[in-house]
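Repro case for the chain-ordering regression, as requested:
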Amino acid sequence: MAWFLSNIRYVAWTAVAVAALLLIYFAMGVAGYAFGDSAFWEASLRWGHVLVGIMWIGHLYYFNFTQIPNMPKIPDEQKPAVAKVIAPAALYWFRWGAMATLITGLLLAWNQGYLAQALALGLLDGVPKHTLIGLGMWMAIIMWFNVWFIIWPNQQKALNIDNKYPDLDAAAKAAAGKTAMLFSRTNTFLSVPMLVAMTGASTLF
Ligand code: HEM
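-- result from build under test --
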């Protein structure tokens, strides 16, 4: 068993396969939905959306609750282990998790037929569910924008990821790191009310 659990690729892909079988069994075998039914795709998308959302927000919370507060406690000569190895790897899963969450979230709204109504915050049809999920979607879209267009480019500068900015001086690196941190903190803040909308929309309405 250790040979299996020691390999994250085996664990991750097997877990996805087991989850897919579970979903297909309950959706088709028990509930009786067909492959083409929108309920089957809604269940699949909800699962995929929450899964990749965890990948994104899990890394956001890792940065904000674990890495950033503890960096000052690490001796300078050991800091590159985090800055050069851990942080770039975490940023990879963080930004692609954000992309996958956005795509599955938009598909989920489209699948349920309310994408435009929610993006218009319910103003087109006066439906409270669309106002609530629309607020959550906009908060999460702002968070996604911050990840891809502010946090990631600034982290590339601050950490000189892939040696893209070899000539940047220490002050410019520090300024980029500070900008990335402030927007990461903003996303941490937004994530809490955003989840009220995500989790409450189909419960309350
Ligand atoms: C990036 C933009 C995002 C969009 C466009 C989006 C869109 C949606 C939509 C349309 C729903 C279905 C709501 C309903 O009808 O019940 C939903 C549910 C949900 N979303 Fe998002 N979302 C986004 C980001 C996130 C993030 C970052 C998380 C964090 C984990 C998240 C977690 C959830 C959860 C937990 C649900 C509830 C699933 C359920 O109750 O079945 N979403 N989202």
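Ordering looks correct now. The longest helix spans residues 170-204.
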